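User: Show me a protein chain along with its predicted structure.
Assistant: Here is one chain, sequence first, then structure tokens.
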Amino acid sequence: MTCIWKGLIQGGSTLARQYLTGNDVLTGVVNSPGVLVYPQGLDDEAMRTSLKALLAHYPIASSRIRRDDKGMLYFEPQDQGAGFEVHRHDHPLPPYGPAYPIDKHLGRYSRIMWPWRVINNPAQPVLEFGVHHFSCGGSLLSMSGVHALCDGTATWLLMMDWIRLHHGHPITPPELNRAPFIDLSTANLERPYTHGAVYQPRLSHTVTMGARFIWQFLTTMEKHVLRVTPQQIALWQKDAQLALPPEQRPTPYELTTAFCIQQLSQANPAPGPRHVGTVTDLRYRRLPGITRKYFGNALWQDMIVLGDQFLLNEPLHNVALACRVPYDSAPMDDVLSYLGLLEKRRLTRSTHRLMSVPGEHCLDNGIFINNCAHLPFYKADFGSGPPTWFENKRAVYRKVMVVSAPPGLGGFDVHLTARRHEVAALKAAQARYNMITQQEQLAA
């Protein structure tokens, strides 16, 4: 691999100091790199030009993270620049996809941003991109940003604005000011928090849980991408149509998620409840300071508890309904008290003592569900056509991330991080469904 260009892209605009919100601090000064694959190639020079135009609208994306004299973290958006590198590889682009995941190769294309190298380091951008060209003419785009900068929704707000500017189209300005979010959280500092999605355990318990997460990640966890076909979804929908009226039938995404939860539960012989962690985007709650185009972290954690016998005996459509979480399902009092708690922890610099309850359950029979089916991964067309594959780094906890399959295929790709025997059980269940759909196609 040869580096042929490396530098900082600056947009020419600045912004007032932006303090991290309680949500930003909770997500942490860590990064989770992602990769988009373009067998048709990319024009990195044109991308640098349009990225410059993008950063003029997103100066916080070319900022640095600093700590003030009271120890509070803030973004300093003074146009220090976002990182951009171009590399050439003397071999063809590997056939990345469901059968050949990138996961173990991600380190070749993007690097980890260690927290201790991000804060008060003027040389470390909060957002980095890399274009990798291969001998066959194919390319790969890596993206890596500090999670405290933004969540997945905001990342793809930025990406789609980049695409629009790349094609010469205007964009709607993003909401970069974090002060209204902090004001909303501050107004609820004293609101009692009773929801229980996060709590502060004893320090010894925190250390034990951290060690268990690391040990599990290193010894028993693996990532697998499961492609759920339209034919498989049609089988599930046929059963739902026989049992439920139209207005109650689960969506294809809900059926896909329920299938994963059901199979993972059955792969674990230990009796007891299964805790399913969920994430909801607060941009849809019409809260002051959190607009649809808010660029930051605006996610809310919740949890569903399902019995092991329920998951064993109930039909898939009933499991899907039990897992349904509307955007407005959480009581507003719970949401506001959660924001108030995180702000109080931010002010006292004790956010690191909090532990996610659904996250902790992932050490046993719990799992986190991340709905990314609505994110436009395969609309990132820089003029040569859309990507054929997207992938990000596997999580350190048990996780199901559902992504829409590439254009023209239909269905979903399930990015699963789980224990090896659980992955094997899900593969076996998927193989059975593939056999059923093939038999039905032959019969037709």
